[in-house]
Design goal:
single chain, 61 residues, mainly alpha, 2 helices, 34% helix
Length: 61
């Protein structure tokens, strides 16, 4: 069986979920206490503090 990873972003809701997942990775890995603490995260640049990626998705238009 061949490995396949779908990379297609279907809509803004899906994009928000993907961004939230990516922002949470350093916290889940124990590299940071929160998303804003991780120096390489865009979460801190957008004032993201509630687990939502809406502020990023809203800037797409």
């Amino acid at each position: 069986m061949r490995d396949y990873f779908d990379r297609y972003i279907r809509d803004e809701r899906h994009l928000a979920a993907v961004i939230a997942y990516i922002h949470g990775n350093p916290v889940k890995a124990g590299l940071a206490l929160n998303e804003q603490e991780w120096v390489h995260s865009s979460a801190r640049l957008h004032g993201k503090d509630n687990g939502s990626a809406d502020v990023l998705v809203g800037n797409l238009e």
